[in-house]
């Protein structure tokens, strides 16, 4: 009788506090990685760390789910987020499931590979395991309108790939060497996480190409075709509680002011260029 009374009390609690109901916290990881302006905040370790820590620290959670929708961006920030996810998973002994929405490409896929399983929608775009650098060349434009570029530096290699100066062959060679090193790091990370699941020639897998989820499944880049709610109900039962972990906000729901906000008050040109680059990155995947 006492047992049934206690059970009755537990039914009055919110579902996430009922021990008999499976609980899965969910963290959304969305947007360009590392491209941060006041009007277009990007995804960085600093912006997602608190939400990740809250999700992994929830007691009795069956797993932590990551909803990923990113075309990539900064290699360093992608790797930092990947590393933090793996560290928290090991610390709390929690399995991690990544759910891909529109795209998990380049750095977005690097983050997804931190999960123990990757589930993608049938229309998701996955892959792009490569490294790319984009820029603009303004040297002819400033010459045409009569602007003189003045740069003073100590160190022979301090100023390379300046968009206001003609491109030099040795500068491009240096950039390609850096890209090769980052690409090799990316490849080794994917191999370490996906292991024997990977199928198909490495030349194709690591070429920077991307695929729809069905082909990505054949290549071993994802584990299942599906979506968050259906997949979690299938794994943990119809009564599974899905708890979205929102990023922290300051009072009145506004972001706390910082250096970026103050610096941006006359930096419209940088914001515009970042917006163009971000738009181009999404457009690569038809989005």
Helix content: 40-55%
Structural class: alpha/beta
Query: Which residue ranges are poorly predicted, with pLDDT under 50 across at least 5 consecutive positions?
Result: 1-10, 250-266
In CATH terms, the superfamily of the domain at 15-130 and 194-250 and 261-283 is: 2-enoyl-CoA Hydratase, Chain A, domain 1
Query: Which value, in Å, is the CA radius of gyration?
Result: 23 Å
Extended strand count: 8
The sequence of SSEs as H and E is: HEHEHEHEEHHHEHEHEHH
The total of helices stands at 11
Strand content: 5-15%
Inertia-based shape: elongated
| Arithmetic mean of pLDDT | 80
Describe, in plain words, how this protein is organized in 3D.
By secondary structure, this protein is an alpha/beta fold. The chain is built from eleven helices and eight strands. It has helices spanning 2-10, 45-57, 75-92, 107-112, 139-144, 169-194, 202-205, 213-218, 228-236, 259-263, 268-283, and strands at residues 23-30, 64-70, 96-105, 117-120, 125-127, 210-212, 224-225, 241-244. Strands 1, 2, 3, 4, 5, 6, 7 and 8 form an eight-stranded mixed sheet that branches. Mean pLDDT is 80; it is low at 1-10 and 250-266. The protein has a domain at 15-130 and 194-250 and 261-283: Alpha-Beta Complex (2-enoyl-CoA Hydratase, Chain A, domain 1). Helix 2 links the parallel strand 1 (23-30) and strand 2. It is elongated and about 70 Å long.
